[in-house]
Amino acid sequence: MSITLKVNGKTHSVDVDADTPLLWVLRDELRLTGTKYGCGISQCGACTVHLDGSPTRSCVLPVQSVGDRSVTTIEGLESPAAAAVQKAWAEMDVPQCGYCQSGQVMSAVGLLEQTPQPDDDAIDGAMRGNVCRCATYQRIRAAIHRAAGELEA
Amino acid sequence: MNTPVDDLLLANVSRRHFLKGLAAGSALVLAARWDLALGEEEKEYGADAMPHGWVDDPNVFIRIDADGTVTVTNHRAEMGQGIRTSLVMVAADELGADWDRVRVEQAPADQEKYGNQNTDGSRSMRHWFAPIRRAGAAARMMLERAAAERWGVPASECHARVHAVVHAASGRELGFGDLAAAARELSVPPRERLELKPQSEWRYIGEDAGPAYDVKRGSVVRPKAIDGEDIVTGQAVYGADVAFEDMLYAVVARPPVYGAMLRSVDDGEALKVPGVLRTVEIDGTGQPAGFKPLGGVAVVAENTWAAIQGRKALKIDWNLESAGDNAAYDSKAYRKQLQQTARAPGKVIRDEGDIESALADAAERVSATYYMPHMAQAPMEPPVAVARIVNGRAEVWAPVQNPGATRSGVAKRLGLEPEDVTVNVTLLGGGFGRKSKPDFAQEAASLTKAFDGRPVRVQWTRDDDLHHTYFHAVSVDRLEAGLDADGRALGWRHRTLSPSIGSLFAPDPEHIAPFELGQGFNTMPFDIPAIRLENPEAPAHVRIGWFRSVYNLPHAFAIQSFAAELAEAAGRDHRDYLLELLGPSREIDPRTFGDQWNYGENPERYPIDIGRMRAVIEKATAEAGWGRDLPKGRGLGLAVHNSFVSYTAVVFDVELGDGGGLIIHSADIAFDCGPQVNPERIRAQLEGACVMGIGIAMQSEITFSEGRVQQDNFHQYLVPRIDRAPRETRVHLINPDSEAAIGGVGEPGLPPVAPALCNAIHAATGRRIRRLPVGDQLSA
């Protein structure tokens, strides 16, 4: 069926099965491949996008349930928090293989937009759903602190 | 990790004739500690011993455009270890390039052109520092000569300085871009005439501004990771990100048991799923599987989701008879079987002194049996590959650690010559050994052939990855020791039992191979009068394969746990006791232990260095405040291990929280890999290895029942999340200016983590963990 989606500020019409998870629509239909597949059951966070600004696992979200909410992917991320997070991530060499980092960045930006100065517990709580097999967690914590500092300054 | 078996299957092209030409020129002697030792031994080591060896031709690796852009071709797979940055640093530094004008290009599989590309065994920098450095130096000298000819002055008066060649006497200067075309026409200087830069002139290699996360310093480490910006903006291209307009999408239903075959399939319901086009049988290969696909039924569709839905609707009758007793494989029963086998003597690997009387005469005997389960590498990017055939030539895009084996395997599968197969290596979304086995690329090849060359992407789901990976070998290690009245160890008997990776390539040997024994078992360095090492049989029932650090994991876990148990039995401080077990600083030739492997390195250049082992222990314990008073319920634990010709010691500070939860306050890691090219990435690799090792200790386990994996996804196969990471992980890089040769980085950080953590748990709680993972043992 034909479904209309607002992604990164643009309206797209896609012809897919209504149950298709948003992840596969983004990747296979819209070729927005920054959003990654890691588990398919919202256990790893690699597929995290923003739905009206809130971090959401796109791998379990049927595309028909997106409705008129706006989808933001890593490719369309634009905000002071996003810029601060991406800068801190690159400066601190957070990524190793990098595959999960789109999802990590999406979750981190979501966190800082809700909680401008998170402590380590708040960071662990917000980032717990994002698995990094290279285990870059120490740098993720540090980079979120740095981004928070930058946003405050 | 290493793939010696794979390498043995390939022609071993000798590089000796190249080396002979190299001789020992004066420039090379200046840099001898960084370069290949040019011995006269018959046996070849290091990069010389690898299939297709090494290449140092600047025209292969370095291109300079008229606008001055320097493009370095990286031929090793990037999986997070940072080689795309670190090898480029080497080339750029020796060339005299400005980092901001250097880019990297990924080489396709072509080992005749680039030399060995098998990115495994923590070998990239060890084997490629010297050749890439020579390539950079040769390119620089060609630029200098081009400038000299332009100006009509002697080349010796022209020097490359930050992307330009300068003639100091006349003050003239020409950019690399202005000289590139002329330099390209010049002959490559012979190796013996190369002038390598002295270390004092390096601008990137070894440059260390301290940890990037050290906010107080506010330091930004330079050069930054080459792919960093692309990764954080979602632009980096991994295997699953390659797409074509007319591409098809496939998932494969594979035999649930190793060795099972397809008997029949009813795809009627699957074909009714909207978007599903057809199903394709993929030939199964039985045992041993090697790198060939397991076979099964592919569902090919217009998008990934349709393929996944279609697969759920398949009705498949598997022939389990061809799997033999694999269909009855039960990991719990297997553990008991190995524990039983471990009670009797096995194949003798090392025998020094009189172990029987050493044990019989001991004032105290200690024994313990340790267990480490199967595990899955579970890289965040599951296996994936895209393939197409155009005009009889196949092209593959895949995240593979072993491009050469991918190319030869795909060629064989399609009945083509390797020259007719192009393998484009994407970024790897993690490897950890899984992607050294390119079975998934062969699946994609079979599928594109079934669709007359149309591009097909085969995507493994997480279930596929956990069910059908090449599993880390399960293991039982039984140790016994005899102590004298003063607690000194008189005798040490260790039996190790694991299925061998050799079973993947040949009829099951049921004993581990030399390259597996050499991973911390027969190289056990303790200074004990009587030592007996045995390897009883352990058959394989699943595909066994490399997992980061491989057999070092169980060997380090058992040996380093047992050393702590002996210290306790002797009533001694663990660190002091461990240092005594190691004995005085000395260099041991691993051949004296019967180890002919030594990670493929020359044992004279890479001996087992007890001094370096002692040094990492002393550093880690000093930094962690070993011996300080701690409240009840809190403790420090230590372990040390050498692997991949590097040395790592880890100290954890842990506390048992309310409800049995473990709080890991900090980790202090001392690491010595000899000279360091990219210290910041080395730290990052050690930080990651630390947390991955915590996962191995605490939670990661694959179990089998009736030959089938019982874990489907990350809710059952547990891997560490951010709250498992210690609040503080401090990596202490030591010995950066040592005379030692370059060691491995990607893997050696992992083996001592689990025993150090279990030793810390013991210190904090009195509970001795001998069976991994810890799971709920602390609350039970």
TrEMBL record, chain A:
Keywords: 2Fe-2S, Iron, Iron-sulfur, Metal-binding, Oxidoreductase. Residues 1-77 form the 2Fe-2S ferredoxin-type domain. One of its GO terms (molecular function) is 2 iron, 2 sulfur cluster binding. It is an enzyme of class 1 (oxidoreductase). Coiled coil: none annotated. Its EC number is 1.3.99.16. SUPFAM superfamilies: 2Fe-2S ferredoxin-like, CO dehydrogenase ISP C-domain like. This is Isoquinoline 1-oxidoreductase subunit alpha. It comes from wastewater metagenome. The gene is iorA_1.
